[in-house]
Specification:
Structural class of chain A: mainly beta
Distance between the termini of chain B: 41 Å
Largest sheet of chain A: 7 strands, mixed
Radius of gyration of chain B: 13 Å
Largest sheet of chain B: 6 strands, mixed
Number of helices of chain A: 0
Structural class of chain B: mainly beta
Strand content of chain B: over 45%
Oligomer: heterodimer
Distance between the termini of chain A: 37 Å
Number of helices of chain B: 0
Strand content of chain A: over 45%
Chain lengths: 113, 111
């Protein structure tokens, strides 16, 4: 069964460093998303991406964040200058159409020291 | 206001019991309703997906949506220890809208 994959599973970085989190969505899906979950808190929407551009973004998704689909299979989230409060699980998700259910990847645990 | 409320639990029931999990939401524009299961430090796994009001059944799982009272439920019949997890409800208005999640209910099925 097709699934969303994410790498790395765990990323440790120093405050102020840039990180890139990578995702491979399900191959025939057209909508891509990033969510994050701070330990013990809700899963929060960051951004949706369709047709090579951002469709929606939340207040969390400020100028330090960016997304890219560099080729036909990968979808990346870049955090330019990490802060301690960026420590969280980051989940990639995809759906075939905007109203269809989202399928999530296993997540990347980001730890900012 | 985009909010989904869910009792975080924990909810502990004996094996074989019927489990009822619930959420309320405030935004009447929400039309799509999902239930996800999440094991510790793993990604949310889709269990049920419904559009608008009504019931949907899939094996031991039944999802109910009552849009008039903005209330969504998930029932699990013949609960098993492997059902122990956190259950997340999520809603959206459709399109490329992000999902709005509840905080999740931590369910424990006692053998």
């Amino acid at each position: 069964e097709p699934e969303v994959t994410q790498t790395p599973s765990h990323q440790v970085t120093q405050m102020g460093q840039e990180v890139i989190l990578r995702c491979v969505p399900i191959s025939n899906h057209l909508y891509f998303y990033w969510y994050r979950q701070i330990l013990g808190q809700k899963v929060e929407f960051l951004v949706s991406f369709y047709n090579n551009e951002i469709s929606e973004k939340s207040e969390i998704f400020d100028d330090q964040f960016s997304v890219e689909r560099p080729d036909g299979s990968n979808f990346t989230l870049k955090i330019r200058s990490t802060k301690l409060e960026d420590s969280a699980m980051y989940f990639c998700a995809s759906s075939s159409r905007g109203a269809d259910p989202l399928y999530f990847g296993p997540g990347t645990r980001l730890t900012v020291l | 206001q985009k909010e989904v409320e869910q009792d975080p639990g924990p909810l502990s029931v004996p094996e074989g019991a019927i489990v009822s999990l619930n959420c309320t939401y405030s935004n009447s524009a929400f039309q799509y309703f999902m239930w996800y299961r999440q094991y510790s430090r793993k990604g949310p796994e889709l269990l049920m997906y419904t559009y608008s009001s009504g019931n949907k059944e899939d094996g031991r799982f039944t999802a109910q949506v009552d849009k008039s009272s903005k209330y969504i439920s998930l029932f699990i019949r013949d609960s098993q220890p492997s059902d122990s997890a956190t259950y997340l409800c999520a809603t959206s208005g459709g399109g490329a809208d992000g999902l709005t999640f509840g905080k999740g209910t931590h369910l424990i099925i006692q053998p």
